[in-house]
Amino acid sequence: MYQKKIPEVLDCGIAVAVKVIGGKWKAWIIDCIRRGVARPSAIHREMEVVNPRIINLHLKELEEMGIVYKEIFAEVPARVEYRLTTVGRSLLPVINVLEQWGNENKEYVNGHHAEYILGNN
């Protein structure tokens, strides 16, 4: 089994939050589920720019952390949907703030920030 050379320290609240929603896609996955996009195939369509294998990996990690749970319906073929747990729902204000910040600063982040770099902010 692989062991990290530097042990993970989760005494800091920011480190815990980043572990849960860090990376490129986890916050987007949580947002999809919040909006009712619950089936893996629907999440894949919603996030078409992301490799489905990566989405599935993140879903598994979120499930292992207790942020989402997988509901399996006894149908043929089996139907799977993801739901937010209570802890997962408690992340929604954080996701909302991240979304708001991103919307307010997307032009800057997308490279239209020469005036800021030059100190004309």
Summary of the model, kept short:
This protein has 121 residues and is mostly helical. The chain has one domain: Winged helix-like DNA-binding domain superfamily/Winged helix DNA-binding domain (Arc Repressor Mutant, subunit A, Orthogonal Bundle), CATH 1.10.10.10.
Provide an overview of this structure:
With 121 residues, the protein is mostly helical. It has a single domain (13-117), classed as Arc Repressor Mutant, subunit A (Orthogonal Bundle), CATH 1.10.10. The chain has helices spanning 13-21, 26-34, 40-46, 52-64, 86-90, 92-109, 114-117; strands at residues 68-73, 79-84. A two-stranded antiparallel sheet has the order 1-2. The relative contact order is 0.12. The model has no long low-confidence stretch (mean pLDDT 88).
Can you give the helix content as a percent range?
A: 40-55%
Q: What average pLDDT do the residues reach?
A: 88
How many helices? The count is 7
**Which CATH-level-2 architecture?**
Orthogonal Bundle
Largest sheet data: 2 strands, antiparallel
CATH class: Mainly Alpha
Large-scale geometry: globular
